[in-house]
Design a protein that fits this description.
The complex is a heterodimer of chains A (151) and B (288). Chain A is mainly α and 151 residues long. Chain A contains six helices and two strands, in the order H-H-E-E-H-H-H-H. Chain A has a two-stranded antiparallel sheet with strand order 1-2. Chain B is α/β, with parallel strands linked by helices.
Chain lengths: 151, 288
């Protein structure tokens, strides 16, 4: 099971067959990137490379911030101002995964990238975006492991 | 501020045009401006007035085999974008024009020589505060006749590369140093470049593609700057037979462009199979 908000979003995307409609939705999401951006009191450039998304050509970074409820708040930065796809996915992941049960976040498959961006996304672009998903799911698994060890 | 293109010492300066030149030719009926990006959301978010988009995945790839579109597919692509055989096609895009160079390389497979790149690409245009629009232009279809695709002059296949390696000829790996070394960059479970093994093709020189550009505005280095990297540092010579490669052949198109047009190398081919093919091939050597 994946976070409910993400599940609903993927269902919405399954009805989009028009490439332009999909792009318009994602551009609107990218326009809201400031809502998902890492706060300056958490991190400021140059960032610790441990937060860098592997294979992402848009220089995306991810932070998973523990919150009081034992869940994570996901925040991002995308250094390439032309990295609209990375920004859009960051907004989606921040909206759908922050505060969600860790088991559900950890269960998100990489192929949500293809469901959101369409199968015409290029190999390299797809790998970068999947890297973003992997960073989020990996952080959820790490936090679950830490909580188990501390229990 | 970038040096004027004609003053940079390039062998084929006509293959680069400035943002100023493009701004002056936005309405030129003999010029078609083409945006080609790594990020598919950029063109629909905004683009140069009158520019059409050619997308590598959607427009240039064969969808049923790992290959490019064929002769009729290219003719159809040109026709629906209103491109005539005698038009000057100006490519630009994000990421310092790497996808623009890739698209131009594909155009070369079909002999559309009258093509160039806008130096600095989208980044420089934006930095200069020039106009961007969302309106997608529609042009009358053209009757474009292309020759059959030439897969020998500018393109290398795996067997060509193997023969090249065995002959000890020059190769340029334009990926990052970490990709070149085979160092694991990825977290467990994430894709490793779409290849089973990390490393590089034996004998290849490591020159990340972006070294050919000025990071502040994405423009190409002048000829002296390029020679300092590829010739003085890496030992290449204009007489060399060179193959460039990266992960899927897109970044290496950028280096192919620099070597062929800006530095005047006559024998330079791009291996579009690149590491995603070589790193998975059975019975070929790699180095780490």
């Amino acid at each position: 099971m994946i976070p409910a908000r993400l599940d609903e979003l993927l269902e919405d995307f399954s009805f989009i067959s028009d490439r332009n409609e999909r792009a318009a939705w994602l551009i609107d999401a990218a326009d809201r990137f400031d809502e998902a951006r890492v706060p300056p009191d958490v991190a400021a450039p140059p960032y610790d490379e441990a937060h860098r998304v592997p294979a992402c050509e848009s220089d995306a970074f991810v932070w998973a911030l523990p919150t009081d409820g034992g869940v994570l708040d996901f925040r991002f930065d995308v250094l390439n101002p032309q990295g609209l796809s990375a920004m859009a996915l960051a907004v989606i992941l921040s909206d759908c995964c922050s505060g969600a049960p860790l088991q559900q976040v950890a269960a998100i498959p990489q192929d949500i990238v293809l469901k959101i961006f369409g199968r015409e996304v290029s190999m390299g672009k797809g790998q970068g975006l999947m890297g973003l998903v992997t960073m989020v799911t990996h952080a959820a698994r790490e936090e679950l492991g830490s909580q188990s060890a501390g229990a | 501020m970038s040096q004027n293109i004609e003053d940079r010492g390039y062998v084929h300066p006509e293959k680069l045009v400035s943002t100023e030149w493009v701004a002056e030719h936005l309405d030129d009926p003999q010029v078609r401006i083409v945006e080609s990006n790594e990020d598919p959301l950029l063109y629909p978010s905004s683009h140069l007035p009158g520019a059409v988009q050619i997308d590598w995945t959607v427009d240039l790839n064969d969808h049923l085999r790992r290959d490019y579109l064929d002769q009729s597919g290219f003719e159809s692509l040109m026709s629906r974008n209103g491109i005539a055989r005698d038009m000057t096609v100006v490519f630009y895009g994000d990421r310092s024009n790497w996808w623009a160079c890739y698209a131009l390389w594909v155009f070369q497979l079909f002999g559309h020589d009258n093509a160039c790149v806008m130096d600095g690409g989208r980044k420089k245009w934006e930095l200069e505060g020039r106009e961007l629009v969302r309106e997608v232009p529609v042009y009358p279809h053209t009757d474009y006749r292309a020759p059959a695709r030439d897969d020998e002059t500018e393109r290398a296949f795996r067997d060509d590369v193997l023969a090249h390696v065995e002959a000890g000829r020059r190769m340029v790996d334009v990926r990052s140093p970490e990709e070149f070394s085979g160092e694991l960059l990825h977290m467990p479970g994430s894709p490793q470049e779409g290849a089973l093994r990390g490393g590089h093709i034996p004998g290849a020189n490591s020159v990340p593609w972006s070294r050919a550009t000025n990071p502040e505005d994405g423009t190409f280095l002048n000829a002296a700057g390029l020679r300092a990297i590829y010739e003085e540092e890496q030992g290449l010579s204009p007489d060399d037979d060179v193959i460039t490669y990266c992960r899927i052949g897109e970044r290496s198109s950028h280096t192919w462009f620099a070597l062929k047009y800006l530095m005047g190398y006559d024998q330079v081919r791009n291996y579009d199979g690149s590491w995603t093919e070589w790193g998975n091939l059975v019975n070929v050597p790699i180095e780490r």
